[in-house]
């Protein structure tokens, strides 16, 4: 399952929201990946997420495969759309 989402928070996916994202992704059994800027990274890897350098307005695709893939994708999209409380 995949969904496209845009970064909403002004400072982009810097250390704190990236950490929140990775921590949330790690709660799921599914394999979760983020696809952006022509790269695919493991959503459970802080270094992978940070390496994308995502800023406000950038689009990314969240992709998951596994038993809880739908919940994983929807939860992570909601987290991004919430702006990480910033």
Notable traits:
HPr, Histidine-containing Protein, Chain: A, PTS_HPr_Ser_P_site, 4-stranded antiparallel β-sheet, HPr family phosphocarrier protein, alpha+beta, 86 residues, cytoplasm
Describe the model.
The structure is a single chain. This protein has 86 residues and is α+β, with helices and mostly antiparallel strands. 35% of the residues lie in helices and 26% in strands. It has a single domain (2-85), classed as HPr-like (Histidine-containing Protein, Chain: A), CATH 3.30.1340.10. A four-stranded antiparallel sheet has the order 1-4-2-3, with helices on one face. The relative contact order is 0.32. The model has no long low-confidence stretch (mean pLDDT 97). Its main location: cytoplasm. It comes from Romboutsia faecis.
Q: Cα distance, first to last residue?
A: 28 Å
Please report the first level of CATH classification, the CATH class.
Alpha Beta
User: Element order, helices and strands?
Assistant: EHEEHEH
* Major β-sheet strand ordering: 1-4-2-3
CATH topology: Histidine-containing Protein, Chain: A
User: Pairing-aware structural class of the strands and helices?
Assistant: alpha+beta
Count of alpha and pi helical runs: 3
Pfam families: PTS-HPr
Domain HPr: 1-86
Protein name: HPr family phosphocarrier protein
Keywords: Cytoplasm, Phosphotransferase system
